[in-house]
Amino acid sequence: MAVHVENDITVSRYEDLLVPFTSSEKPVTEFRCGAEMEKFGVLPGGAVLPYEGPASVRTVMKSLEDGYGWVPESEVKDGPVLALLRKGASITLEPGSQFELSGAPMLQSHEICTEFRNHLSEIRPVSERLGIKWLGLGFHPFSKRADYTLVPKQRYGIMREYLPTRGSLALDMMLRTSTVQGNYDYIDEKDAMRKLRVGLRLSAVTTAMFANSPFYEGKPFGGKSFRAKVWVNMDPDRSGLVPACWNEKATYRDYIEWALSAPMFMFKRGDEMLVNTGQTFRSFFTDGFQGHKPLMSDWLTHLNTLFPEVRLKKTIEVRGADSQGGATACALPALYLGIYYDEKALAEAEAMTADFTHDEVEASRQHVWDKGLSAPFRGKTLLPLAQRLLEIAEGGLERRAFKSTKGNDERVHLARIKTLLAKGQCPADALLENLPEGDLTEEIIRRTNLHQS
After folding, report:
1. Any bridge partners for residue 106, and if so which?
2. Which residue in 103, 228, 268, 357 is a FRET match for 203, CA 20 to 30 A apart?
3. Angle CA 441–444–445, to nearest 5
4. Integer distance in angstroms from the first to the last C-alpha of the chain?
5. Which residues contact 205 (CB under 8 A, 6 or more apart)?
6. What is the torsion angle, in degrees rounded to the nearest 10, for the CA atoms of residue 252, residue 365, residue 219 and residue 175?
7. What's the pLDDT tens digit per position in 35-79?
8. What residues in the chain have per-residue pLDDT under 50?
9. Three-state SS for 173?
10. Which of 361, 376, 118 is nearest to 243 (CA)?
C-alpha cells in the first residue's frame, strides 16, 4: 500500500532523503517496540484461507470491525478492505492472505504478548464458527502456488510480474511465507547504524534460532526453514545483508545509497498507479518518470519495498525470523528488546560480532535454511553463538526488570527458546520429533495451531 504523507513534498535535494530517518530519532525515554506477527489461516483439510468468500480473511476482518472496534481501510475510495486500524495497531494482509497483526508500540514484551493473546481471542469466535485454524509457521505447510488468488492490493500485482524475474522463489515469498518481526527505536544516526550493523551481523544466528518451517506441501522437506531458503533466492538488489552498512563509520547516507540503487515497483498519483519497475530510485530522483518528480510519499513507499534482513526505516526492523508457534510467539521481540535497549547487552553483542565479515555471515546464511543451528561458521556451528546471544539478551531483560502480573521479568518470553537451545534445537527440530506415518495434515495443524498452543 502506498504511503500517505500529510503535506507531501517534492524530494528535490539529497538532504530530503534523510528526513525519514532524522525525524524518527527519539530520546531513550520514548523507546518502544512494535511487533509484527503473521500467520496462516487454513480451512478443514489444510486448504488455503482465501481473501473473499463465506470463510475468508475478509469474513474474519468484518467480524473484527463489527465486534471489536477495528476501522477498515482501503487503498481507494470504495475499494476492497485491505487493513484494519485501532489505537496505534493495524491488521494487514500479505499477498497470499497471510493475516498480520502489526502491534501498537509497546514499552515491554509482556505488553506485546498480551496484545497478541488478545488478538487471538478476538478472532477465535469467528474462526471456530468457520472452521479456520491459524498456524504459526514460516512457510505454508500444505499449499501449492496454484492454490492462491492474490489479495487485491495494487502493488501485489506488480510484484507478481516483476519479482519472479529477480529470484526463483520470489512468488513463494509473496504467497507462502510468514514472519515475526520486531521494530526498535534509535536515538540518533550513530545509534541507528550501530543497531543496524549488529542486527545484520547476527542475522544468520537469528534465523537459525527461530527456524520454524520444516514442511513443504505436506511433508518434511529435509531442512529447518523453507522460508529462509526462499529468502536466499530472492531479488538480491532489495534483500540480504546491506554490505554498505557493515563499516563502523557507516551513516544514513550509506543506507540511502543502497536504497537508491534498488529498482522501484511503482508510485501513485491520486488513485492512479504508475508502474516503473525498470527504474532505480536514483534514476527517478535525478530524472523523474514521464514528467513526474519524486515525492516524499514515493521515497517512503520505496523504503517499504526493500526487504533486507534488518531494515532501516522510522525504526530498526529485525526481519530474519520465521513466524512462531504460541510458546515462542513473543520471543523474537523480547530477544532484541534485551539486546537493543540495554547498553551493556548491546555492547556485548557488538563485541561478539565485531570481526564478523559480510562474506562469512552470507556464507553461513546460505546453509541456515537446511541446517538451522548446525549451519557452519568459522569451523564450528551457529549453536554456540545463539546460546551466547541468548545469555546477552537475558542479561539485558533482567536489568530492564519489567515484571508481569505473575512476577516474571521479560526473560519468561525466552524460556522455550532457552530450553530448545540447551538441547541444540530450533523450533523446527521440535516440530519434526516423533511424526506419525502417513498423511501429516492433521498432526501439523495440531502442533502449530496458535489457538491450542
Report:
1. 33
2. 103
3. 85
4. 32
5. 382, 385, 386, 389
6. 20
7. 999 999 999 999 999 999 999 999 999 999 999 999 999 998 899
8. 1-2
9. helix
10. 361
pTM of the predicted model, to two decimals? Answer: 0.97
List the grid coordinates of 183. Answer: 521494530
What span, in angstroms and rounded, lies between the C-alpha atoms of 284 and 306? 16
Question: In sequence order, which residues have a C-beta less than 8 Å from that of residue 347 and are 6 or more positions away?
Answer: none
DSSP labels, 246-263: -STT--HHHHHHHHHTSB
* Sign of the four-CA dihedral 227, 414, 362, 261: positive
CATH of domain 14-448: 3.30.590.20
Give the pairing type, strands 310-312 and 316-322. Answer: antiparallel
Work out the angle at residue 62's Cα, subtended by the Cα atoms of residues 60 and 68, and round it to the nearest 5 degrees: 95
Sign of torsion over alpha carbons 269, 301, 82, 166: positive
Report, in this order, helix, strand and coil percent for the chain, each rounded to 5.
45, 20, 35
Nearest CA among 400, 453, 403 for reference residue 430: 453
At CA 102, angle to CA 99 and CA 103, rounded to 5?
Answer: 130
Quick one: pLDDT at residue 4? Answer: 61
Lookup: cell for 319: 526481519
Closest of 109, 117, 112 to residue 136, by C-alpha: 117
Query: Taking a C-beta distance cutoff of 8 angstroms, is the pair 175, 216 a contact?
Result: no
User: Cell numbers 527456524 correspond to what residue?
Assistant: 211
d(CA 85, CA 65): 9
Distance of alpha carbon 6 from alpha carbon 343, whole angstroms: 35
